[in-house]
Amino acid sequence: MNEARAMSAAVRAERDIFAARREIDHLRQRLHEVGAERDRYHAALVSIAQGAPLDEPTAVPSAVAAWALRQGGAR
Fold first, then answer.
1. Among the listed residues 48, 56, 57, the one whose alpha carbon sits nearest the alpha carbon of residue 75
2. CA–CA separation, 4 and 24 (whole Å)
3. 9-52, pLDDT tens digit by residue?
4. DSSP character for 60?
5. 47, 60 in Cβ contact below 8 A?
6. Does residue 4 register a pLDDT over 70?
7. Residue 44 near residue 59, CB atoms below 8 Å
8. Roughly how many angstroms between the first and final C-alpha of the chain, as a whole number?
9. If DSSP states are collapsed to H, E and C, what string results for the chain?
């Protein structure tokens, strides 16, 4: 009986470890995505600071352009 309980506990622990590793992989992927998004926004802010027109949709993400307009950064 104790052997069966120990085996059951080991199986649960292994399943929990697998689930935790899956979650870690998911969080790493999300961190990578957020970093890439941050880089795009940073590049957009640099473009605005260098005088890029805010009405070019490919040059400046819309959220950054809207923020710049609120700050009076439109040229």
1. 48
2. 30
3. 999 999 999 999 999 999 999 999 988 888 888 887 787 778 77
4. S
5. yes
6. yes
7. yes
8. 78
9. CHHHHHHHHHHHHHHHHHHHHHHHHHHHHHHHHHHHHHHHHHHHHHHHHCCCCCCCCCCCCHHHHHHHHHCCCCC
What would the pLDDT profile of 8-20 be if each residue is shown by its tens digit?
999 999 999 999 9
Distance CA 31, CA 1 (A): 45
List Cα–Cα distances, 36 to 44, 53, 58, in angstroms: 12, 22, 16
Give the pLDDT confidence score for residue 6 in this predicted structure.
84
Higher pLDDT, 30 or 5: 30
* Sequence letter at residue 5: R
Dihedral, CA of residue 16, residue 22, residue 23 and residue 26, to nearest 10: 180
Distance in angstroms (rounded) separating the CA atoms of residues 45 and 63:
11
